[in-house]
Amino acid sequence: MKIILTTLLSVLLMYSPLSVAAGRSKPVVVDTAEIRQLAPTVLYSGISLSKNDIRVAAEIEGRLTAMVDVGTVLKKGQAIARLDDVFLEQQKEEELATIASRQASVSLFKKQQQRYQVLLKSNSVARDQLDQTQASLQIAQSDMRAAQARLMQIEERVKRSKIIAPFNGVVTERTVQIGEWLKTGDTIVRFVDLSSNEIQVYITTQMLNLIQIGSPLQVLQGQTSSTAVVHSIVPASINNSRLFEVRLTPQENIAPGTLVRVRLPFTAARSVVSIHRDALVLRKGSSTVFKVNAEKIAEQVSIEVGVGDGDYIEVIGDVAAGDAVVVRGGERLRAGTTVSSTAFKAKK
Q1: Bridge partners, residue 338, by sequence
Q2: Short-list 315, 18, 53, CA closest to 200
Q3: How far apart are the C-alpha atoms of 118 and 73, rounded to whole Å?
Q4: CA–CA distance, 183 with 252 (Å, rounded to integer)
Q5: Nearest to residue 331, comparing CAs of 32, 28, 30?
Q6: Using an 8 Å Cβ cutoff, are 25 and 261 in contact?
Q7: Cα angle at 253 between 251 and 257, to 5 degrees?
Q8: How far is it, in rounded angstroms, from Cα 327 to Cα 280?
Q9: Nearest CA among 321, 328, 332, 322 for reference residue 345
Q10: Has residue 13 got a pLDDT over 60?
Q11: CATH numbers and ranges of domains, the chain
Q12: 233-261 confidence digits (pLDDT tens)
């Protein structure tokens, strides 16, 4: 008897008005339709480039005695390669000896000059002897300065026999081998800065007026999306393609040489009523959205879609700015369903 009463009570509760209302309430996530400036966009191919991508060359002649491998990461000032400096060191020793000799001559002529100046006061020496000594002193001083200048040049060549990294980067290519004789200007390695990059993309003429310095653009790398800001526009076509070069600074570091896609506007933006793309319900070729009214009841509205920009798209129909539209859970809804909603948080 108790079992029968319990069963009847459960059935009554199941079909009570409160139970039915609770059963019809569907949890959904809603977003607000807004007026936005949208423009139709197109994806153009671009490439990530390093701002510092150079060919490091030999600054003096010499035989290559050492160099780092491809892929070596170096800090500014570290050695990339080294040239044989044996002959330069020998020339340096020779000039040091020459400077010492010239210094001795200068010291000797200075002493003679001082002695002749004293003797001249007592007429114990001819004026010509003093003049000749002063001339010899000037010649010796000039020879010493010339030898010192040659020494500085040799020391500079010794310094430049060590090829150093001009900035932090990585060796991406070697163009010579150890043991080769290099002339001044011969390329040794290609050296790339990985921490300072930009994106290069070419646009058509009609797009020139649609972007400007400082414009943020979406960059797609596979399934990853990021933002890059236009930092330079070349307003002249440099080849027969009639395309114009644009450079962008990405917010995230992208390895040089990486191919990317850049979303670019191809007509001017205009003010439209827009919703998040996730609010669209596509069924049998029709496009609808679910609005949630003040009574928390879902209303299904047929709409047409217009221009899109990223996650947001223009809607044409009975949707106004400020309307709450379902962006999560719409595939389970029917018109007239009571819903319990939470606010939508778009991904940044």
Answers
A1: 297
A2: 53
A3: 68
A4: 40
A5: 28
A6: no
A7: 125
A8: 8
A9: 328
A10: no
A11: 24-38+270-343 (2.40.420.20), 41-51+196-265 (2.40.30.170), 55-84+161-192 (2.40.50.100), 86-159 (1.10.287.470)
A12: 988 877 777 889 999 999 888 989 999 99
**223, 231, 226, 225: which is closest to 201 by C-alpha?**
231
Question: Which residue type occupies 17?
Answer: P
Q: How far does CA 291 lie from the centroid of its chain?
A: 43
290-328 pLDDT, tens per residue?
Answer: 888 888 888 888 888 887 777 888 889 888 888 888 888
Joined tokens for residue 308? 């899109």
- Determine the Cα–Cα distance for residues 156 and 161; give it in Å rounded to an integer: 9
Determine how many CB atoms are found less than 10 A away from the CB of residue 63.
14
Summarised one tens digit per residue, pLDDT across range 206-219 is 888 888 899 899 89
261 SS3 class? strand
Q: Check: pTM over 0.90? Answer yes or no.
A: no
With b for 16 or more beta-carbon neighbours within 10 A and e for fewer, the 28-41 pattern comes to bbbbebeebebbeb
Can you tell me which residue has the tokens 């001339």? Answer: 135
Q: Are 68 and 82 in contact (CB under 8 A)?
A: no
Counting Cβ atoms within 10 Å, is residue 229 exposed (0-12), middle (13-18) or buried (19+)? middle
User: Which residues, 6+ apart, have CB-to-CB distance to 288 below 8 Å?
Assistant: 280, 281, 300, 301, 302, 303
Give the confidence band of 338 by pLDDT, cuts at 50, 70, 90: confident
Q: Which residues pair with 174 in a beta bridge?
A: 189
**CA distance linking residue 140 with residue 101, whole number of Å:** 9
Q: 307-340 burial, b for 16+ CB within 10 Å, e for fewer?
A: bebeebbbbeeebeeebbbbbbbbeebeeebebe
Query: Length of the chain in residues, anyone?
Result: 348
Q: Report whether 348 contacts 331 (CB < 8 A).
A: no
